[in-house]
Amino acid sequence: MDNLDKKAYFDEYGYVVIPNLIDQNKIDNLLGKYKKFKKNNCFFYSQSHHNWNRTKECLDKYGNLTFSIENFTDLLYSFGFSKAGREILQSDEILYWLKILGNYDNFNMHGNMFFDRSTATADHLDTWYIDTNPRGSLIAIWIALEDIDGKGGAFVVYPRTHLKENSSEWLHLNHEEYLFWAKKLAETKQKKELFIKKGDAVFWHPSLLHGSTDFVSPKKTRKSITAHYFPNNYLRSDGRDSQKNRNLISYINDVKEQNLMSRSFGYSIKAQKRRREII
Fold first, then answer.
1. How far is CA 54 from the centre of its chain?
2. Residue 153 pairs with which residues in a beta bridge?
3. Residues near 112 by Cβ (< 8 Å), separated by ≥ 6?
4. How far apart are CA 66 and CA 119, in angstroms?
5. Which of 5, 43, 55, 241 has its CA 20 to 30 A from that of 49?
6. CA 44 to CA 165: how far, in whole Å?
7. Percentages helix, strand, coil for the chain, rounded to the nearest 5?
8. How far apart are the first and last CA of the chain?
9. Comparing C-alpha atoms, which of 120, 118, 128, 94 is closest to residue 108?
10. pLDDT at 270
11. How would you list the strands of the sheet with 210-212, edge to edge?
């Protein structure tokens, strides 16, 4: 498929796979820095459990990290791990496709995660947690850092589920109710597991139902990274209670202030390590 075909596929199915997006050398550099990060028993914030941990406290018997790392590109003492992540997640290659798929000139990174093993994420729509205001312009990415064959878990999508406007069904649900709603929706839709190669990337829409499967073999990893991006002329939102009508001047001023603190493609990758007000 050419670029227009991939854009059309993304619009129709809610996701698209871009083969060989990330250079192998960048990935090998990231994985090498990650080994140092683990070996030095560094602190990280667990996206899985929402607390701070040291790496050696969270390894399985095979030496793999059992928790995902939230915003791993922001860590101060990471032995180059964070910088190597920024060099991938804020690369020209990713911005190129964000512009094509999102129809905007520039983007900021909302947040990111690093996975050593699969955490078997429950099926969900991102928009319940994070999105733009107005809703629907967030774009997410999942990048394989190794070949994904499903034995270590797979990324799962439910094609075309982004096409129906169903926010009225989940807007006022609490988290437990929302996950139950998403589970019931998944039971009525076609499920597709994505088996992709090292360096391949999946982009998806914030209203696409997706998740991940658990590992089949406990020895198998599913090394990968994810990130979410929003156009830099939009405000971030959680997709639920921040969808407010705003005065235009107020909105523009809030966007300007937000951009000063955001993970921007236009800001020096090296210098971002020192920005403590990143959102």
1. 22
2. 150
3. 70, 71, 72, 73, 85, 89, 225, 226, 227, 228
4. 8
5. 241
6. 37
7. 35, 25, 45
8. 35
9. 94
10. 52
11. 192-194, 155-157, 210-212
Phi, psi of 231 (to 5 degrees): -60, 140
Q: Six-digit token pair at 134?
A: 């107005």
**For 175, how many CA atoms within 13 A lie in the half-sphere containing its CB?**
4
Q: Token pair for residue 188?
A: 């009525």
- Cα 250 to Cα 82, 163, 182, distances in angstroms: 34, 31, 35
User: SS3 for 195?
Assistant: coil
pTM of the model: 0.92
What is d(CA 214, CA 66) in angstroms, rounded to the nearest whole number? 12
CA 173 to centroid of chain Cα atoms: 23
178-235: per-residue pLDDT in tens?
A: 999 999 999 999 999 999 999 999 999 999 999 998 888 888 999 999 999 999 999 9
Q: What is the pLDDT of residue 165?
A: 86
Which of 76, 65, 78 shows the shortest CA–CA distance to 37?
Answer: 78
Element at 98 (helix H, strand E): helix 92-102
In the block, tokens 């050696």 appear at 56
Q: Residue 60 to residues 32, 45, 213, 256: CA-CA distances in angstroms?
A: 19, 17, 18, 44
